[in-house]
Amino acid sequence: MEIFGIPHQAFLGQLMLGLVNGAFYAMLSLGLAVIFGLLDIVNFAHGALYMVGAFAAWIMLEKWGVSYWWSLLLAPLMVGALGVVIERAFLKRLYGLDPLYGLLLTFGLALIMEGIFRDQYGVSGQSYPVPDALSGATNLGFMVLPNYRAWVVLASVTICLGTWYLIERTRLGAYLRAGTENAKLVQAFGVNVPMMVMLTYGAGAALAALAGVLAAPVIQVTPLMGSNLIIVVFAVVVIGGMGSILGSVITGLGLGVIEGFTRVFYPEASNVVVFVIMAIVLMLRPAGLFGKEA
């Protein structure tokens, strides 16, 4: 049986690969959208924090035997704490200024973090084993589905939708959104806005680290893994709409699938298809697919 002229096993395999890549795009673009939408900071250090999260899981396993499941909790907490330090030490001085200053600062921080890990571990990748509980694959009849890849998609979608619900549908999310619109008014009601902003950036950093831990068993853990991905993730955020959380999630998953199918039908275009789509979207709708027009 063929679908669009290719064997259905290959078609469905590319669909799954696209969903896995899209899950990482969605997780990373989610953190970027949260930080930009609530703090108005273009966080170029997001890819480096993703890399640090993956390395944190690998180091904990190699040095102290910490399991994958504990790393899913501990790595985001550690990188989230690093995000809090970055926000308190550097970013809080840039609030109210042109977003370009935040972009340049976070770009410099990304280079520093990448340089530290390149100096310690080189550029060759480190392998992280798939946890025993998620090893192997399941035969669905029409395709063989690796268990870990299914877990990545399920976990990513659950986390993304949970984050969207927290920010858009809860009282805490209402405080966050109101604090970024009118901090003085919200502070008048007894809300500690600086603390809230600090924790928001830390939460965005933790989301990047969580994506890094999820990615570690799928790809090689290397200091370059963040810089190789962050440009594509920025394109995803622009297409979805800067600051749109649900837009980033939907666009990330969708573009991952489109990129996967492009590798089948026109492999030479697979590395640029996301940017072609971004250019088309910006010409037709500059605010992005789910963004609000200024």
UniProtKB/TrEMBL annotation:
Membrane-traversing stretches: 12-34, 41-61, 67-86, 98-117, 148-167, 188-217, 229-257, 269-288
Keywords: Amino-acid transport, Cell membrane, Membrane, Transmembrane, Transmembrane helix, Transport
The keyword Lipid metabolism is annotated on this UniProt entry: no
Membrane topology designation: Multi-pass membrane protein
Compartment(s) of residence: Cell membrane
Main location: membrane
GO cellular-component term (any): plasma membrane
GO MF, any single term: transmembrane transporter activity
Gene Ontology biological process terms in this record: amino acid transport
InterPro entries given in the database record: ABC_transp_permease (IPR001851), BCAA_transport_permease (IPR052157)
Family stated for the protein in its record: Belongs to the binding-protein-dependent transport system permease family. LivHM subfamily.
Name the record gives this protein: Branched-chain amino acid ABC transporter permease
The organism of origin for this protein: Ramlibacter montanisoli
